[in-house]
Amino acid sequence: MARAPASAKARGRTTTTTARGATGAKAGAARGSARTRSAAGPPAAKNAATAASKAGAARKPSNHPTAVRQASGADVPVEIRPVRPGDLAQVIAIDSIVTGLEKAGYWRTIHRRYGDAERAGRRFLVADAGGRVAGFVIGEVRDWEFGSPPCGWVFAIDVHPQFRLAGLGTRLVAALADWFRSEGVSTMRTILARDNTLILSFFRSLGMTTGPFIPLEIDLERPGLFPLDRERDR
Amino acid sequence: MRLQKNTLLALYSVLEFAYDPSRHISASEIAQKYDISPHHLAKVLSELARSGYVESVRGVGGGYRFAANARRVTLMDIISLFEDFTSSPAERREPGEETPVGQALASVMREIDEIAKATLSSITLATMLQWIEHNRQSRPAKRSAARSPARAVPAANARERRES
């Protein structure tokens, strides 16, 4: 989870106008392991000023986010629902277990941006297993960036290690996909490090394939290559 | 990229086995289905068995059956048994590769290889089986399709042919 949200935050909007063509991933038959842990980001959430989280009194204080209660989430009924302010501590805990980094400030910002169910185009869902947050997914509808017709980005997904292999990742993505459809979006998209085989496999198991866009980047510190540097040195 | 013949036979076979893990399938059945030399296939199957992806079943009705976890085995796992797809350009000696032209070309080829590797490493046999099943249901069987080893979903088509 570590990298993408961070970079999504750090980078500005890169909007290129290129050919359209959004025949990306069709979520096909969905079944597969839910060993999910990833984050993938559309570039930069707009620096939308965020309405203070309308945190009504936090429900579910969730004191023991890392307590191990059972081997898998299988026998606990799991409900996929929008995040609530009281879930945040558990979300932060899951992320820090998985990534080894606790990013409380970051997650509070994300929660302000995405946790508001009223906010158009954004969704932050959690898997609630008998009152515990077992996993979460965050998505957003983005219009016309990169020349792409509106599409739904999955930009963070995480399942508590204790609840993996129970299909929760699949259910989270399926719920997000349903919501994207209800928003009138017909393509769902994500981006991952290509050495993140585990999560790539997870999304592949949902039927996702390489989309029509190719990410490009350049190391701005590397001297002497191509016109960018020559322009700078002039 | 193009897979070598043995690699392709291995992928056909392993998907055929994984499609129904409980079933013993003989080498000759696969050879017939994919229109390939049984002798050629035998070597491929014994390599798959040696690596633990299939196990041989002796006796009448013997053959091989799937012995791995389809959700954990990727296409790359199978491919790398038969070809050294992952070797970096540094290990492959090509004439002219030390020249600036050679180096620039090598970096393009490396970029392509990296993407291919990431793709093949992220697609499990279970994912393939879902695709195969999806194709099987969404298009009527083409009887001739299963004969050509170049088809993308021969196992599914072949199975349909058998069932029909």
Mind explaining what this structure looks like?
The complex is a heterodimer of chains A (234) and B (164). Chain A is α+β, with helices and mostly antiparallel strands and 234 residues long. Chain A has a single domain, classed as Aminopeptidase (3-Layer(aba) Sandwich). In chain A, 27% of the residues lie in helices and 16% in strands. Chain A is built from 6 helices and 6 strands; from the N terminus they run H-E-E-H-H-E-E-E-H-E-H-H. Chain A has helices spanning 3-10, 88-99, 104-114, 168-182, 197-205, 226-233, and strands at residues 37-39, 78-82, 122-129, 132-142, 151-159, 188-189. The longest helix of chain A has 15 residues, at 168-182. Chain A starts with a helix and ends with a helix. In chain B, helix 1 crosses helix 3 and helix 1 crosses helix 6 (125-138). Chain B has a single domain (5-157), classed as Orthogonal Bundle (Arc Repressor Mutant, subunit A). Chain B has 164 residues and is mainly α. Chain B has 7 helices and 2 strands; from the N terminus they run αααββαααα. Chain B has a two-stranded antiparallel ribbon. At the A-B interface, helix 5 of A face helix 5 and helix 6 of B.
